[in-house]
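Re: your question from the hallway

Yes, I did run it. Sequences:
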Amino acid sequence: MKPTEQIDKSSVLSARPKQSEIKIESLNAFLRLLKERGENLLLVVDKCSKISHQQTTQLENIQELVQKLKEAESHRKILENQIIKEYTDCRIIDDDNRVYVT
Amino acid sequence: MLSKFGSKLIHFLFLVREKLRNLNLNLTPSQKELVARNLELEDKIITLMNNPIIDVELVLHCVTKRMRETFEIEMRHLERSVDAKIPAVSGSLEFNDPNDRFQRLELFQTEQLKNKCQSSDNLQNSIKISPGIQEENSLSPERKDSLEKRADKVIVFRENKIEAEAHKQLHWKSTKPLTGPFLRLKKNKNGNINHVNLYSDSHQLMVESTKISHESFVAKSFTNQKSSESEYHPQSHRTSAGAIDQILAFNSMNHNDETLQNEQIDPNNSFEECQEINAAKTKKEKKEFISVSEYLAQSKSPQRTKKFYIATGLITNQVSRRGSSEHLISSGVVTLNNSVESAEIPQTIKGAASHPAKLYWLLKVEYKPLPPANRPDLKKAAKEKIVSELLAMNSDINRSRASYAANFKRFLEKSTERALEYQQIRRQQELAKQSTVEKKKISENTDEKGPLDSKLSPRGIPHFISRSSKVSRGNSQENLASNALDSIEEDSPSKNKKQAEASPLRAYRLPFIYNSLRGSKNRAFSYESSKTLPRNQDYDSANNSVSLIAERKEKEKDRVQKKNERAIVLPKLNVVHDANQELNFRRMQENLDSNKNKASTKNGSLPGAAINLHRSLLFLKSKSTTGKKVGNVSNHSQNSQPLSKSIKNVQTANDIASSLLEKAMQDFDNNKKILKNQFSIFDAYDNKIKRALIGIEDNSHLLSKLTN
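Structure:
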């Protein structure tokens, strides 16, 4: 398991934008959080697929892992909420290179 | 920066999805659902990020919400499986069809709702977060609801917009021309028409080939359906909230029917309801669309018809799904096959030609100019423009002339003398004209080409406009004036005197006219308002003559005084004195005669005074001659009394003459000022008319060019 990076709460809070201003730091932090969650998610999915073949000892480890993942998730949630709060009612007109295709 | 963020976010989600796929795992339905949710999230983010105004909060909220949900689900799943040591039950659902994801999503959401309480309880139990931080950091449910609503709104709006754009850029692959438009009007439960569809005959054939059942017609059911056999672009099958909005907007624009606009389309509206089209309450809407279709049928332009359908979003795949054309016709759909006459449309509608702007708006095509046959003639237009300009110029000239005439009339009305002078001058001018005509005749007899040609000039402009004629006329006037001067010079002083007595005005008129004509020969004739008074030079000369007269008078006074003194002191020299006196008298008479003509011009009353003076002088002369005839010294004492009387008379006459001269000088000054003003006005008019003449000549040039 890859340990989740502990993102400093104060660093996120310090990057509070003024009105319609966007800080690259906060966006990067947000992406980092998402990435972590994605990695954790993949890990969970992998564990889920292999759980039928797991032994009881391994299952205990998995339980521990689940607990850690939950903690990390809660921490992520706090940070994400902070970032989202920073951008309350933040609307930006950005017409440059905004053509996203599936 | 935000775009980079968006792209990174999407890329990240893509990577997650791809990794999930590449795990080569036997994905459980929930795991498959995870992939589907990721896909959906990607779509959502793309939609939000492509929105012109990016709501950052909304984007972040959507992403976190979805990611959290998926993570929680997977965590729950793992927890359960660990607890039970049993992997999750694999479902029979497959993940091959991307359209299935919506159905699967619903399934997932129901599952999620069931497990929501459990998961939240688990999380809250497992994680120990201080309540203060939790309250501070977590979003309130109201806030979450509002964000969700906003996200939905944005997504719906974007979807509609995308669909509208897709309709605009509809890839029409059919090579078949549109032979005739079909019209389908659809009512809601209230009986108002809220959906109209037009399609062509070529669709009819296609519809027959597809043979989709009638029951499948539900407005929203086409959004997710695929058409493999259709000739349209796949994007066009996603109908058509945007198109319906457009139609509703059109209706509301035309009729201000807000209720119609606010009505939502009832997807359960069936074709049976459409059968009642003829009895529809809102006839206006029907008329509008029928008139448009009628216009299109008349125009016989398949391109335009197609554009109309595309622009209004009326061509959709619905028709192809609807069933055969026969069914449509039988089920009450109005058809417009090639012409309006064949349709079941009321004939009261009279074409859409009365609303061309609306049509162009509907068609969303550029206005094309009329064909060359109907195009206005540019030459003709230019001619008309020039003619109108010329007429305007002429009217201006006439106006200025009229104003000038009015001013001149006022000027004449101020004093009767001026009017009389003017009349006299006119008479003289007429006489002069007659004389010139005579001269012309004479010259014509002598020479074939006379100096004055009354015919048109080479440009076709009459001589009264052309400059050459003015010059010639000026010359003729000059000749006339010089003749008049010659005649005056030839006249003897006695003759002049008689003339002055008979008509004092005439005595000074002729040289004056000569001067005025010489001074403004071009101007005088053309305006029919010749100058009755001399110009500045003439005034100067007149002033000089007046000063000379005054000097001479003073000299005469001195002489008379000297004579009187001599007569008293030296009576023996009476004869010599008489001879001298006679000479003096003659000189005085001559001077008076010469000055009389000049001085009389100053004032009309002057000639009378001059006559008095002249009479007194004559009296003196007669007295002196009688004394001479007697030749006796004794008679001198007898004649001394009349002499003194005569001297007195002379003195009084001199006084009168001097006072008159002073008055005349004052009048001169006043007249000078008035005339200066008048001449400045005349000059201004001159300039104006010259400019107008030049303009007329230029325009006539242009006209001649254009006519050629």
